[in-house]
């Protein structure tokens, strides 16, 4: 089991902003968040789907993408450490984006320790889509697009072609969601239990499902807490931890 990364407090956790030029209220909320609450944090964790889509790091000079990456780098320059786990919408964000934004990429899942003390709580972070195992079609798609060979072939295509393909996928995804039961698109309880068991029964924080809540799970006699992060719709929403308590914001 990998050693948990020790992080500075307070720590803030966000996901599922789906930033896009045609969502100016959410973009403004994010930029205000970076200039406000995030500057008081020791660490900021972005757990995927920061962007509505990311076609590849060669799109970093797009004016919108550059605006967001510059805002993140400005925050990093003040001393807040920024960490990023890719989601299903921005899974192609890589080293180029990380360098431009001044952040550190984390694997999914990633283990962190909230503070420097040896007994500081261990938290497991994930985007969350891997836990939605009841959606068999989505999991097959997820395995395909996260395959290194598939990604290399996709990124070898012209940027315009990649963007057109992603746009068609987005339309197909929205149509498919309308035909799926909501329970299929939520996490699977057995998948959650297996992940918690594998990593020593930590606190789990994830996004993806757009169902913000605090859950308690009994796994092998261990009481585990799972936090689901909120998606953004023109309003900043985050989870914070000072090392002793988690608080959903706004309360």
Which outline best applies?
A: globular
Helix content: 25-40%
CATH architecture type: 4-Layer Sandwich
Q: CATH topology, which one?
A: Purple Acid Phosphatase, chain A, domain 2
Rg of Cα set: 18 Å
| Strand coverage percent | 15-25%
Describe this structure in words.
This protein has 251 residues and is α/β, with parallel strands linked by helices. The protein has one domain (5-249): Purple Acid Phosphatase, chain A, domain 2 (4-Layer Sandwich). It has 7 helices and 12 strands. A 6-stranded mixed beta sheet has the order 1-6-7-8-10-9. Strand 6 (110-114) and strand 7 (122-126) form a beta hairpin. The relative contact order is 0.18.
Q: Which helices and strands occur, and which strands form pairs?
A:
Elements: E1 5-7, E2 11-14, H1 24-35, E3 43-46, H2 63-77, E4 81-84, H3 95-101, E5 104-105, E6 110-114, E7 122-126, H4 136-145, H5 148-155, H6 159-178, H7 189-198, E8 203-206, E9 213-219, E10 222-228, E11 238-241, E12 246-249
Parallel strand pairs: 1-6, 2-3, 3-4, 4-5, 7-8, 8-10
Antiparallel strand pairs: 2-11, 6-7, 9-10, 11-12
Task: Please give a quick description of this structure.
The protein is an alpha/beta fold and 251 residues long.
Offer a few descriptive terms.
six-stranded mixed sheet; 251 residues; 12 strands; globular; 33% helix
